[in-house]
## 1
Amino acid sequence: MRGRGFALFGECLFAGVLVVLAALPAVTLLPALAAGCAHVRAQVEQEGGTGTRAFWGRFRAAWPGSLPVSAAGAVIAAVLLADLAAVRAGLPGGRYVLAVCAAAAAFAAVTALRAAAAWRPGARWWELVRAAAVRGARTDLPGTLLLAAALAAAGAATWALWPLAVPMAGCLLLAAVAVERRAAVG
């Protein structure tokens, strides 16, 4: 059993590297996350197909329809960054704006992770994101809090030592897969 856990950890790290590479152009973030989650899910469920070729095949399968959703995510990120710039410039009530921006960014990131973890070939991205937002806000609030805690831990580790961004990406994939499996079972 110990060897299987180590293999899962290794696959998470490997998937993190592949996701970071695939997501370098920002508009490929969602298909990269979906391919990474599918990669980790294949390892967890012992389906096989966890090599590099399988990852890129999943990435290509997740690409159709992801561009408009990714563009919407980029717009949300730009608005949040503009709000943060206004806070840094001395916006009155900046602490409250900062809190709202942090909550919105966390919810958007959790929704993206949940949508990516729920992705299967042939799924439509807008439907996945809509369902992930509903699960995140209404039907599985504990799962949302778990993913938010995973994001906070990954952010703190990356802030402390930036090269940890790559392994933390793999850990976030595993967390997203685990939360979605937990929601499906519960």
## 2
Amino acid sequence: MKDVFARLASDFLSAIIFLAIYLITDNVVLATSVAIATAIAQVIYARVKGSQLSFMTYASLALVIVLGSMTLLTNDPRFMLAKPAIAHFAIGVIMLKRGWMLRYMPPVVAETVPEYVTTAGYAWSGLMFVIGAGTIAVASTGDLRLWAFYISVVAGGAKILAFAVQYVVLRLIVTSRLRAAARA
């Protein structure tokens, strides 16, 4: 679990840096410049360390550079604020692949209720699209505090709630099916 949070922190480091500097200084140019430099430094550090970099790492770097450049050219932070939406849309598209979630499930779940796991995968995809659309809507206001609240509390909370609901529902369904099979 610690690895997951470390990976998330690494993936969102430039956005976190941007947010912190912008909230402290109210200087969009400084915040954006440091966010771009941070993203580039992360990739250089990983390459020097010999780490294998994924497509998503390079895609994230490209987004930071492109959206950061747009932010610098327009002096408008909304471009940087929109970056998480693009990531949510991309993940939502990936989650449209039938059965993607099966490999993340314990064998008892994958073998007992694969159709429910597939449905849950589509529900997760829908959630990513909804969160992405919400991010765009909130980013378009330009209100950084609202955006920070949305990204951390609303989007994060929605994912935690969805995970909890999925866990409970799949557990109940699997238990019910296993009991029915034992009686038969």
